[in-house]
Design goal:
heterodimer, A: 85 residues, mainly alpha, Non-ribosomal Peptide Synthetase Peptidyl Carrier Protein, Chain A, B: 414 residues, alpha/beta, Peroxisomal Thiolase, Chain A, domain 1, 2 domains, three-stranded mixed β-sheet, 15 strands, 33% helix
Chain lengths: 85, 414
Amino acid sequence: MTKDECKQVVLDIIADIAPDEDLTNVKPDVRLRDQLQLDSMDFLDIVMELRKRHGIEVPEADYQQLASLDSSAEYLTPKFIALGK
Amino acid sequence: MPSSSARIVITGVGLTAPNGDSLAEFRRNLLTGVAGIGRMEIRYMGPQLAGICRYDALRHQKKKEVRVGTRAGSISIYCAREALADSGVAWEAVPKDRVGIYVGITEHGNVETENEIYNISKFGYDTKFWSHYHNPRTVANNPAGEASLNLGVTGPAYTIGAACAAGNMGLIHAAQMLRLGEVDFAICGGVSESIHTFGIFAGFKSQNALATHDDPAKASRPFDLARNGIVISEGGCLYTVERLEDAQRRGAKIYAEIAGWHVNSDASDYVLPNPARQAECIRSALTRAHLSARDIHIVNTHATATPLGDIQECEAIRAVFGEGCPDTAINNTKSFIGHCMGAAGALELAGNLPSFDDLTVHPTINVDHLDPQCALPGLVLNQPRQLARVDTILNNSFGMLGINSTLIVRRFVP
């Protein structure tokens, strides 16, 4: 899995949990909460969907790693690779 | 400060029923014999008869609200928004801390709990897959709370759990709170999402109280000799209710005045109704309304089409109305829409409100062979009936654990 593919994984999840949002111009280096209507429950959704869809665990201490698409990719890509994806 | 005898009026109606998503559509179908029962797939059980609503949730909710919230919450929001629009109130100017939302429910949380258990069953029952939305979805105030969020209402917003008497209870509670001066404007009635829980289907089936019929439109048939149980439905009906002086000040259209009510309990059985307590409930509502039985022009029955329950309600009605009420017509709305549970009382009242204008009583349909034990004088069977006058409507709603509610509304006369 590349970092770009990883960003798409996160975007696909956000598309489902925030279906009213326009995701065509999400800036990868900007905090997701600063450009989308996402609250703390939505971030728990992202964590849950990573668990359900991809078997990836994000401990609470690491939630801040999901702040932007870039930071998500940095954090998640090695986890996907470790799972052989 | 409002008085304990302040006159309370209904000024708006918002509803979704299995056969209509507005009062006009609902009423039209009640007068033309159009039922709203179909079949839907129920988890673990296969296709079951059910009354399914088809309102457009996205008319008043964002997609995310629908995803995060519950079906009951969505129904509440739809009905509340439609009622507000119908009321003509200048909503933006209404002080939201003086608005109360009172939503009757039969039950809440079964749908969401079943869904979560099913969800974790796909993950070896590992509870780390249990949704963080479970608690806000299942708290008992959810259907009212979601409406408060959507509407920005900061006054009291809660549900009233009263089994299938709950729809009436929403209205009754609103009238009480308006008279107490707790709020100045109320959104009230009842909702149900019950068709989305297999448990209620399985429970009624185990009780031998779930209707069966080859033709869904004929399945709900109170008072028919061959009736064999309840058709479970979803739905909602919320009203805007105000003190008369407030409604008149803003020039509101007034559907009806709440004339009287009563709520009591059987204290005799978990599920079997008690005709003596039901009759007491009806009589006490008449007393509060300063009316006698012969003054009532329409009685809308609660009858759910269970073999025994219908007979027992008829016994209660016979005890109060007897043979001495030649001007009293009796009907039943569940024959069209099934049993909408917490919404039943509120929806069934709404279906009859237009009678004040058109002097027509919608019938009880699907009565091919009237059960002699249900042969009440005044029953309006299969075809609408025109009356000389309609000034009063009495609405019965009864529920499990023996809760009874009767609500009487009258034609508004200044």
